[in-house]
Design brief:
Radius of gyration: 20 Å
Structural class: mainly alpha
Number of strands: 2
Low-confidence stretches: none
Strand order of the largest sheet: 1-2
Order of helices and strands: HHHHEEHHHHHHHHHHHH
Shape: globular
Length: 321
Amino acid sequence: MQSFETLAVQFNNFFSRRHFPLEPATLYEPNEYFLHQGGKRIRPVLCLMGNEMFDDIKKDAWHVGTSIELFHNFTLIHDDIMDKAPVRRGKETIHEKFGTNTAILAGDVMLVSAYEELNKIELTYLRPILTLFNKTAKEVCEGQQLDMDFEKMESVSFDAYIKMIALKTSVALAASLQTGAILGGAGKRNQHLLFEFGRKLGIAFQIQDDYLDAFGDPVKFGKQVGGDILANKKTFLLIHTLESATASQKNELKKLLLSNSDDKIARVQQLYKDCNADSWALQLKQQYLEEALSHLEDIAVLSIRKEPLRELAHYLIRREY
């Protein structure tokens, strides 16, 4: 069994090619610029790992992984537009560098390219994988819409937020693993357990992401720290703080949410700490990690075949960027 790092190198070698035509350059160069910024390539490598857990990696897994990565980058391009994010992976976002209209079209054609890549796989696998891919793509869009809806709401429940991030973040990780399992010939129960492992791990991953957005090192994190605070996003940290704050703390936080003051990020960060939201989030992350690992343990394959995913799970939720 190969580690995430080993498979990531192999996938990057496979993926590091030109994906778009030369003309019109004003449409396709922005996408090449974006793809060459790198990224962790977590989702496509999960597809390879899901395949290898049950059988040797099939040629189709590389095409499915490429499709997954192109779709993920499509979502990032459009997310950055909606979030008005100036930086992604330490560089200018597409809409900042090339303009919003071009960024919208670039994202659209990235999505079309993802489907073109899926069309290269064997017909035996195309229907189940395309069905899962479409279901996941719709759920990611649903999650993004809920995320934007939450910005306009005064309060959001913990359960509603869990549902939103499960749709926006977790299902993509889970489905990447399941597509690999399908290619590896896994049965329905093993597919389900692997999906649940990915879903719970995705929630833990998002908790860590929320935490890093508020408290991470901007150099390591690769984007603006406090972006969620400026956008008034209902993150785990904000929801917990609103639920546990004193009356005066809650009033101060609500005033900050309505303001655009220069010290907004610093003041909200301090309120999070005063209400122990930072330590609570780290405990919650650990809870979801343990649930994910429990699902992994229940998969009916030799334990050694699970080891690369165990190692990856621990790495993802302890990362600093």
